[in-house]
Amino acid sequence: MILKNNYSLLNYNSFKIDVKAKEFVEVNSTDELKEICKINNRKEILFLGGGSNILFTKDFQGLIIHLNLKGKTIEKIDSNHSIISAYAGENWNKFVNYCLEKNLGGIENLSLIPGNVGSAPVQNIGAYGTELKDVFVSCEVFNQKDCTVKEYNLDDCCFDYRNSIFKTKKHLIIISLKLKLTNNDHYINSSYGGVNDELGRLGIKNPTIRDVSEAVINIRNRKLPDPKNIGNAGSFFKNPIVDLKKIEAIKKNFIDIPNFKVEENKFKIPAAWLIEKAGFKGKNFGKFGVHKSQSLVLVNYGNASGKDIYKLSLSIKEVVNRIFKINLETEVNIIL
Ligand code: EPU
Fold it and tell me: What confidence score (pLDDT) does residue 131 get?
């Protein structure tokens, strides 16, 4: 382990914000993680995975621990299922592709999501009708407070829409996770968000898990900017969930408000729609702006500061609140 001082985080955050960490270290094993945390237990510590869901608004004055633990194993548990284990530092999309190569189904809808395996449970990543919790078995968790490691099962993690226990309890660090996947092409979920339409466009009638993955990749590539080219962190806000009364009130002025029932008297409204109606879609402020095809995504066109993006997010929240009386919640982790 090499501790670096005044270390640039430019290549460690997908927003491509040029900030520095006072101290930075990369850990490659659980033992290294324990060791570095024991030595530095009084410092302000930030654990960083793939950096694809974080916005730095200034230099970080403490220690950044970059989680780079690697490795994966597959264990067939019956003729239909396997348990796959993967360490936190594995790239999520490469991991999905690995599973597809092994013909393991269940996470193909989560293709091309940026970030690392260890971050997936934190916000219960979800896309195109699948959430991590649907295939989740357990994860190994390092507790920074007492330097112990414990296994967390599905219930322990308190998963919800873009939420889990790890979102608020920042001292709980995911080291590895176990998923239960199908061995063959049993699991196909293509009914959501245009996946079936895209499969139709590709001329596919009986889709395999690889076909679903291809369809999802095509849709994502059309709608979402590639962080390799344009700095961004995916959806900046969560989709708000409101009751019927709220929907009816908004309908008086916006008859076409899209909404999806999630449970009795709870409806999800696309935040992208609210932001679009608030006039922000495609807005370009020079160095930064709102993406032209998906208004949930704030972008850094180059050399924007974290504060620029943060201020833009506050303006969006303010205008959406003024028009719709809805308080948008950020889904990106903002380091103030
Ligand atoms: N819409 C607009 N304007 C836009 C884009 C979308 O009005 O600019 C409306 C349309 O009515 C559309 C609806 O929003 O039908 C839904 O759009 P989309 O399918 O793109 O999904 P989303 O709800 O905006 C969520 C996730 C995405 C995920 C997609 C696909 C959240 C916060 N975001 O977006 O996740 O890829 O569904 O399942 O739940 C991410 O977390 O970084 C992310 C990209």
Answer: 97
Which residue's alpha carbon is at the smallest distance from atom 37 of ligand 1? 127
pLDDT of residue 247: 97
Which ligand 1 atom minimizes the distance to the CA of 192?
A: 38
Residue 185 pLDDT: 66
Q: What share of the chain is helix, strand, coil (3-state, %, to 5)?
A: 25, 30, 45
Catalytic residue from among 140, 198, 214, 331: 331
We find that the CATH architecture of domain 231-240+270-335 is Alpha-Beta Complex (3.90)
Q: Where are the domains of the chain?
A: 4-67, 72-223, 231-240+270-335
Catalytic residue among 52, 119, 235, 295: 235
SS3 readout for 133-189: HHCEEEEEEEECCCCEEEEEECCCCCCECCECHHHHCCCEEEEEEEEEEECCCCCCC
SS3 6: strand
Spatial contact of 28 and 66, defined as CB atoms under 8 Å apart = no
**Going by CATH, does the domain composed of 72-223 fall within 3.30.465.10?**
yes
162 CA: nearest ligand 1 atom = 39
4-67: CATH number: 3.30.43.10
Q: Which residues of the chain have pLDDT under 50?
A: none
